[in-house]
């Protein structure tokens, strides 16, 4: 069971060039809006036609420019949960779900599957409601029910939480994740939120400007993003140009520091990243005098901005994020960061 | 005095048939025009909308030039016994040409505001394109399509210029309400003209009432 995607498309001013292979489980495409994530999904679904390339799902060729294969969306057996859920406004919940069952000719079996999915998705009592009367969470469940009954080989979700209120989002995330794992087939999800990507997925592909930069297991990606864009997209706040000094040491001119690293530094290093959560007043390594700049409080955490003593005063300050109870009373003279938390970023 | 009801019957039949024709043609062109690239759409749009801004007599002129009995197409059609000049079904042609842009433009506006992701999601669910069109796109655009149909019907019913050019006025044969009103007025039959004016007013009132009722019912259905 695998999805192989290798597509190129020229939009005039925007060039999509994406290549990846996704295995079972939930794979997430993470990238800023306009980076080509949704278009990639549309190409896989057959709604958008790439200029050239190859798309294969579980050994079935969905698209191949050289062999002139381009299956229509109807024949691809790919489920697509749209950002706005795309429920048919003129139909009731029941009729909407039945659209996913149109291939089932046996009336009894159709009714049974309909009832099963309605109870599974907790939609009982809403059968005769119109989409306009549903809450965001209900609409999402109807849209998913409609897709699940059509038994797709691959399920694609385009920003599944963007249409939901904040407080709903977290509970639905857990619910959806459990359901997707139970679904047992490949899931490809698109999001711009690193939290959602981290919560939901087993692997993440980082996209930027029409390109897939890297694809890794989720935890591995956060521990070692590898490139500047990937570091930024996984939420790394402090990134500065750096150059290699030795196998385990880099110099960061902008910050006026040299940092020891746990990983071996390769040639061609372009920058280092320090995650805002990982600074430590008690660290023994990479300890430098610092100057306080500003502080911003959040409900449970606080963000402190500082500069290294030797840092260019015109450069962006460093972000340090910590929970409030850990915040020192007096701003420390020196702050350090463990060598293992120095992210090495290459182009 | 026995009233000759022929103009009423003829007008209704011309308006109804041309309305059905225009309904399908308008939707067909609107659907494909909405999908075309901007530049081609602009040109097609001008051509398809021209009959709306041209004086109906100019449309009638073009129809005569095309379908006139001494013109190539007219001669060709006459071989199969089809004559659009001085026949009631010529009136259908005239009314359809003049009413077409109203249907086309309103339907196109409706199609353009349609959320295309609905069609995409239908496709990924495996629904056939024709089913998506009739069961999802058309119902979602029904307001605009209904409005276009009513406008086209009303316009076809009131058609005078192109109709009088192409089929003239022959009592009991090509007479419609609007040509009858003019003919009676011209021949100083003021009460006759007044009678047909009232008939026309009654029909228009019924059409408008029907539209309002339909709209009210739809609003109720949406709220429910």
Describe this entry's structure for a reader.
With 347 residues, chain A is α+β, with helices and mostly antiparallel strands. Chain A folds into 2 domains: 2-225, P-loop containing nucleotide triphosphate hydrolases (Rossmann fold, 3-Layer(aba) Sandwich); 236-346, no CATH class. Chain A is 24% helix and 35% strand. In chain A, helix 3 (93-99) packs parallel to helix 5 (136-148). Chain A starts with a strand and ends with a strand. Chain B is mainly alpha-helical. Chain B has one domain (6-223): Orthogonal Bundle (MetI-like fold). The A-B interface holds A 42, 45-47, 72-74, 76-80, 82-84, 86, 88-90, 99-100, 102-103, 130, 132, 143, 146-147, 150, 152 and B 115, 117-118, 120-128, 131, 135-136, 139-140, 222, 224.
Quote the CATH topology of the largest domain in chain A: Rossmann fold
- Label the structural class of chain B: mainly alpha
Largest sheet of chain A: 6 strands, mixed
Please report which band the strand proportion of chain B falls in: under 5%, 5-15%, 15-25%, 25-35%, 35-45% or over 45%.
Answer: under 5%
What gross morphology of chain A would you assign? Answer: globular
Q: CATH H-level name of chain B... which superfamily?
A: MetI-like
C-alpha Rg of chain B, in Å? 20 Å
* Assembly type: heterodimer
Number of helices, where a helix is a run of at least 4 consecutive DSSP H or I residues of chain B: 11
The CATH architecture assignment of the largest domain in chain A turns out to be 3-Layer(aba) Sandwich
Q: Identify low-pLDDT runs of chain A.
A: none
| CATH class division of the largest domain in chain A | Alpha Beta
- Per DSSP E runs of 2 or more residues, the count of β-strands of chain A stands at 22
Share of helical residues of chain A? 10-25%
């Amino acid at each position: 069971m695998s999805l192989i995607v290798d597509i190129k498309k020229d939009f005039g001013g925007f060039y999509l060039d994406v290549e990846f292979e996704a295995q079972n489980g939930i794979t997430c495409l993470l990238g800023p809006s306009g980076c080509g994530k949704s278009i990639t999904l549309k190409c896989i679904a057959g709604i958008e036609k790439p200029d050239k390339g190859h798309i294969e799902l579980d050994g079935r060729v969905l698209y191949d420019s050289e062999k002139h294969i381009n299956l229509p969306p109807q024949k691809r057996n790919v489920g697509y949960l749209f950002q706005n859920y795309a429920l048919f406004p003129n139909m009731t919940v029941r009729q909407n779900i039945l659209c996913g069952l149109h291939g089932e000719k046996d009336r009894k079996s159709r009714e049974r599957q309909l009832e099963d999915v309605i109870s599974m998705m907790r939609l009982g009592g809403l059968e005769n409601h119109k989409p306009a009367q549903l809450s965001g969470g209900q609409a999402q469940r109807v849209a998913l029910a409609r897709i699940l009954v059509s038994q797709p080989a691959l399920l694609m979700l385009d920003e599944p939480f963007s249409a939901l209120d904040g407080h709903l989002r977290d509970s639905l995330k857990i619910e959806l994740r459990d359901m997707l794992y139970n679904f047992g087939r490949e899931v490809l999800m698109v999001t711009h939120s690193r939290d959602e990507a981290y919560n939901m997925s087993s692997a993440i592909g980082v996209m930027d400007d029409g390109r897939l930069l890297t694809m890794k297991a989720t935890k591995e990606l956060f521990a070692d993003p590898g490139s500047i864009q990937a570091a930024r997209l996984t939420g790394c706040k402090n990134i500065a140009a750096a150059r290699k000094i030795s196998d385990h040491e880099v110099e960061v001119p902008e910050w006026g520091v040299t940092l020891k690293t746990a990983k071996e530094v390769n040639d061609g290093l372009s920058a280092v990243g320090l995650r805002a959560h990982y600074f430590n007043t008690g660290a023994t390594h990479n300890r430098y005098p610092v100057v306080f700049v500003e502080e911003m409080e959040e409900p449970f955490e606080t963000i402190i901005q500082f500069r290294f003593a030797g840092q260019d005063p015109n450069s962006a300050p460093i972000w340090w994020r910590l929970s409030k109870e850990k915040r020192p009373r007096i701003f420390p003279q020196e702050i350090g960061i463990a060598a293992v938390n120095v992210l090495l970023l290459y182009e | 005095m026995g009233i000759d009801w022929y103009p009423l019957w003829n007008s209704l039949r011309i308006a109804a048939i041309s309305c059905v024709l225009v309904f399908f043609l308008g939707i067909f062109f609107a659907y494909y025009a909405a999908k075309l690239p901007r530049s081609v759409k602009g040109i097609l749009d001008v051509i398809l909308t021209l009959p709306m801004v041209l004086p109906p007599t100019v449309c009638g002129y073009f129809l005569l030039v095309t379908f006139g009995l001494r013109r190539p197409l007219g001669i060709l059609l006459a071989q199969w016994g089809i004559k659009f000049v001085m026949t009631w079904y010529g009136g259908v042609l005239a009314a359809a040409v003049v009413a077409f842009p109203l249907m086309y433009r309103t339907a196109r506006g409706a199609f353009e505001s349609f959320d295309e992701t609905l069609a995409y999601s239908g496709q990924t669910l495996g629904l056939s394109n024709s089913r998506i069109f009739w069961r999802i796109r058309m119902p979602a655009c029904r307001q605009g399509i209904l409005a276009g149909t009513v406008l086209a019907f009303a316009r076809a019913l009131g058609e005078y210029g192109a109709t009088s050019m192409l089929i003239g006025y022959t009592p009991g044969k090509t007479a419609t309400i609007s040509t009858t009103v003019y003919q009676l007025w011209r021949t100083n039959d003021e009460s006759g003209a007044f009678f047909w004016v009232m008939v026309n007013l009654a029909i228009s009132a019924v059409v408008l009432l029907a539209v309002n009722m339909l709209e009210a019912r739809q609003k109720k259905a949406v709220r429910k």
